[in-house]
Amino acid sequence: MQCTTLRILKTSTLPLLPPALPMRFQITCELDYTATAPVIFLLNIRPKINSHQMLTDEKFTLVPQMPHVQHTDPVTGNRFDQITAQLPGVYHIRYQVIVETSALKLSMSEIPDMPLGEFELDVLALLYPSRYCQSDRLGNLAAKLFGEFETPLKQVQAIVKWISSHIDYVSGSTTSTTSSEDTLVERQGVCRDFAHLGIALCRALNIPARYFTGYAHELNPPDFHACFETWVGGRWLLWDATGLSSPDAVVHIGTGRDAADVSVCTSFGYLQLDRQTVICQALDPDYRKLSEEELQQVCISHS
Amino acid sequence: MQCTTLRILKTSTLPLLPPALPMRFQITCELDYTATAPVIFLLNIRPKINSHQMLTDEKFTLVPQMPHVQHTDPVTGNRFDQITAQLPGVYHIRYQVIVETSALKLSMSEIPDMPLGEFELDVLALLYPSRYCQSDRLGNLAAKLFGEFETPLKQVQAIVKWISSHIDYVSGSTTSTTSSEDTLVERQGVCRDFAHLGIALCRALNIPARYFTGYAHELNPPDFHACFETWVGGRWLLWDATGLSSPDAVVHIGTGRDAADVSVCTSFGYLQLDRQTVICQALDPDYRKLSEEELQQVCISHS
Amino acid sequence: MQCTTLRILKTSTLPLLPPALPMRFQITCELDYTATAPVIFLLNIRPKINSHQMLTDEKFTLVPQMPHVQHTDPVTGNRFDQITAQLPGVYHIRYQVIVETSALKLSMSEIPDMPLGEFELDVLALLYPSRYCQSDRLGNLAAKLFGEFETPLKQVQAIVKWISSHIDYVSGSTTSTTSSEDTLVERQGVCRDFAHLGIALCRALNIPARYFTGYAHELNPPDFHACFETWVGGRWLLWDATGLSSPDAVVHIGTGRDAADVSVCTSFGYLQLDRQTVICQALDPDYRKLSEEELQQVCISHS
Amino acid sequence: MQCTTLRILKTSTLPLLPPALPMRFQITCELDYTATAPVIFLLNIRPKINSHQMLTDEKFTLVPQMPHVQHTDPVTGNRFDQITAQLPGVYHIRYQVIVETSALKLSMSEIPDMPLGEFELDVLALLYPSRYCQSDRLGNLAAKLFGEFETPLKQVQAIVKWISSHIDYVSGSTTSTTSSEDTLVERQGVCRDFAHLGIALCRALNIPARYFTGYAHELNPPDFHACFETWVGGRWLLWDATGLSSPDAVVHIGTGRDAADVSVCTSFGYLQLDRQTVICQALDPDYRKLSEEELQQVCISHS
C-alpha cells in the first residue's frame, strides 16, 4: 500500500491579467558534435511557441546537409530536431532566431492569495518527487525553514532567498547525476542544481514546481540556462535562484519535471560535443536587468 | 550545457494483433482513514478504462456520505476520487467492481525484432531517469550484465530473471524513499522495489519502461500490487519480477514513471490509514497462473 | 594520488586543571537475547575505567551460567564481554555497577584559545570522515554556517545550538544505516544521529570529534545514550546536542569514531534482542541537570 | 539500543612461517605544492618500517629548506612528515629510498582453515563499516554472491575475481567522495574504489579487511597505488583486485580502515598539488609479476 502525504494545496481563481511586457531577443546557438558510429540524436534547442513566445526569422542549419525531422511534444510543447547521423563524422548545427516574449510583470500584491479550494489535476505530477528533486525527503526541512511564511508566494520567495544565500555558485562543481540532496549537503552547484533545489523545496511544501531550460540575456559565461517555475495563484511564476539572469529576460526552451526531461541533446548512441556557442541578446538597447530590490516586489509570469 | 547519452532505440511497425485473452475479475477494496484536521485527499484505486479493461458493477461508497469529485487524467487515463474531508473523523471507503480484461498473450516469436528506425516521441519521457529509477547511473552495469543479449526483448527477459534471482522479497524491508540504487546495494525489497529496479535497468539499456499499480489475482498476502511495462516491438509488454503474480491476471490501476506518480492515496494534509482490505479474484474458476516455463515463452500485452 | 584538505588546526598547552566534580551513579542494565544457532557475541556495556571513572560493586550475571571472557581494548579502553553461546536458547544478562565520575566543570573562559601550533598526531584519525560522519562532504556547509565564529570552542557551541534547533528528535525515525548526510536532508533523528551530525560538522571545521555511548542520569525514555566529544583547548569536551542529558551526568561506556565502533552488542551470527532495561540514577538526591543557560557558560570534560 | 550483527568469525592458530621472499625496490617520489597562505601539511609517503620492510638510503629533501617534523603513529606504524609552510610559495619535496621487503609467498593450502574459535580483539575495528566501505548495507549481497564458498579464503578469492570481472578500471571516473556503494551501482572506478569494494564485501562476510597505500613495481600509469589486506588464517593476506600490480611487488606506505585514513597529503589549509612523479622499480632485473594463474594458487602476506 503506497501513500503519499502532501500538505494543503491552495489554489485560486485566475485574476485579471495585467498587460504583458513585450521584449525581443536575438538568439544564436552553434553546436559541433562528433559521431564515431551511427547515432540518432534529438536536440531540444528551439524555443517554445506559445501565446507568450513568438518566433521570427528562425533558421536551423545542419552541415553536412541532410534531412531531419522536427517534433513538438503535444503535452509540453517542447520542440525537438531529430537527426539520424548514419555516417561517422562531424556534425555542425547552427540555429538562429528572433523571439518576442510577452512576460507578465506582476506586483506581488496582484498574485492572489490562495484559499483552500479546488485541486488542479494537471499540475499533480509537478508536486511529486522526480529524479533530481527528492521532495519526498525534504518535508521536515521545508516545514522548519519555510513553514512559517503565510502564503505560498512568500514561501517561494523565502526559498529563493535561502538558496541564493546558502548555496555557492561554483562552475564545474557538480555532475549530471547531482541531485537536490547532494546540493543540500555540499552547498554548491550550477544553475541546474539551484533550480533542482528550488523545485524540491517547493514541492515539499505542496507548491507545484517545474524546471525549464532557456536562453538568458547576456548570461555570463554564455551557456544554456536553467531556472524554475512555481504554480502559485493560478499562474506559473518564474524564478532564478542563481541571480544570474532576470526572469523577464529568459526565453523558454524546454519544460519538464527536472533536468532529466529537458536535455539539450539526447543521443541514442555515443556523441561527443566538441564546441558550443550560445548567444542571447535583448534587442532593446535600453533593457536593464531587474534589480534584487525589484525582484522582491515583482513576479514574472508567462501564463 | 546538459546532454544525455542513450543507446540506439530500436522500434518497429506494429504487428497484426492476435486475438485477446478475455478474463473477468471481482475486485473489492476497503480503506479506513482517520483525519485529525481538514484534509483533501485523492484516491487512485479505480482501474483504468480502456480498450483492454471494461468495468461493470462499479460501486464507490464513502461513509460519512458526502459529495466528492472524480477526475480522469487525460494523458495517463489514471482515475482519481478527490475527497474533501472538512471535519476530523474516520472516513470509510468501500470500492467494488468487476473488470473484464483482454490481455494479449503473445509468443516471444510474435514480438517483432526492432531494426534501427523511427523514434517514438511519446515514450521519450519513459527513457529518462525518475525519482526511484536512477537509470542515469546504471549504464555500465546494465551494459555489462545484459548488453550481450541480442534484442531488447531478450534483454528484458534477462533483466527480469536477474532481478528475481538476485533480489530477495522481504516484506517491510524498505520504505517509501527506497530507490533502485538502494535495491542494488541491499538486495532486498518488495514489489515496488522489484519494479523500480526493472524499470531502471531497462531505461539504462534504452528500453522505455513504466510503472503500474494493479489488483493481482490472489496476491498473497493481499495488497495492492506493482509491476512494470516495457515498450518493445511496438507494444507495452507486462512484467512482474517478483513472480508473485501472473501478468495476465493483473488489473491496471495507475500508470506512471515510477511509484511517485501512482500513490494509492495522495493527501493534502495529514491522513492516517487505519485499515486496508484488498481482494482480487479471477471469476473463471479454472484460471491458473502462468508457470515460470510459460513466462519464458509468452509475453502479455495490453496494447 | 589521494589528498585531503583540512583547515588550520589550532591546539594549545594544557591549562591547569580546576578541581573535579565528583558524582556517583547507580546503574542497572538487563538484556535478554535469543540465539537460534550457535553464536558468539560481544557486549560493550561496562563503563570505562580511567582516572575519571571509578567503578565499585560491579556485578555481571549471565543465565544460563557459563564461562565468558572479558577484554579491554588497549587503545580505546572500551570493555567487552565475549559470550560463546553454543546452544540455542535465551540468554539473560544482568549488569549492575556504581560509578563515581569526576568530570571537570570548566567555565568557557577557562578553555584556552588555540593559537596556530603543534599538531597532535593521536587525534588525527578523529579528523577524518567515518561511516556515519561524512565530514568530507560538509566543508562548504560548515564553513558557511559556522566559519565566522572566532574560536573552535565557539564553533562547537554554535554547532550544538544549530543541531538542537534544526533537527527534530523523533523516536524510530531512523535506522542503523542512517548517516549525517541523511540527517541533514531529513532533519530528524535520535541521539545517535544528533551525535553523528555534530561530529561530522566539527571534523569539517578541523575540530577532532568522537562518539561515545553512555548511561545518562534519568534519561527519558530509559535507554543507552550517545553523545560526542570534541578536542578543543587540549581537552575532550562533552556535548549532547539532543539536550536530553546533562554532559556531567553521563557515564562513558564506549568511545569510537562513530556508532560503528561502539555497538552495545556485536554478534557473530544472528542474535535477537527480546528485552532491554537500562537504569541510571545519580545517587546525590540533590543533583539537578545543568540548565541550558549554564551550558552556554560551562563545559564538561573528562580529561 | 545499538546492535551490530556479524557472522561467525573463524580464526586459527598461526601456522609455521615459510621462508620469506626478499625483494628490493628503488623508489623515487617528487611532489610540488603551491601554498597561497600559511598552511601545515602532513605527508604520508615514507614506507613503513617493520619486520617485512627494511629501508636504506632514505633521503627526504624539501625546497625551500626548512625544519620539519617526523611522526610515526604508534598503533599503525604510518610515518608522517609534517611541514609548516608559513610563507606562500612553491614547496618541492623529493623523496628517495631503497626498500627491501620480505613478503611470504604461501600456497593456498598453507593458509589454515579457520575453525570456530577465539576472537581476535585487535582486528575488531576492521570488521566495522567505515566511510567508504559501507559493509553494513552489503550483508545480503555478500551472502548471496559469496556465501556458498566454504572458507573465508575462498570467499576472498571469489570477491577479488568478482570485482575484477564486474568493475571497469576507468581513470578519472570517480572522486574523493566515491564509496563502495557508488562503485556497486556505477561499476567503474580506480584502484582506491576497487580496494574499497573488496574491503566492504569482506567485512560484510565477517572477514576483517583493511586498506593500504603503496608503491607498486612498474605501475602503469605511474602513481601511488592502493590495495587491501584481509585477516584470514591468522595473517594479513594482500590483494589487488585491479590486477595492475602483483601483491608481492607493492611496498606498503600507510595502512588504515579505508582511504580516509591514509591520504598521501593531509593539509590544514589550502594546498595545491602542481606536479607529482612516482617511480617504483624492482631492483632484481629478472623480477616478473605473478601471473593470474599463480595468483589463484598463491597468497602473499607480510605477517
UniProtKB/TrEMBL annotation, chains A, B, C, D:
Gene Ontology terms for molecular function: peptidase activity
Domain Transglutaminase-like span(s) in chain numbering: 183-243
Keywords, comma-separated and alphabetical: Hydrolase, Protease
One Pfam family matching this protein: Bact_transglu_N_2
Highest taxon, organism lineage: Bacteria
A Gene Ontology BP annotation from the UniProt entry: proteolysis
PANTHER family: BLL5557 PROTEIN, BLR5614 PROTEIN-RELATED
Protein known as: Transglutaminase-like putative cysteine protease
Organism: Prosthecobacter fusiformis
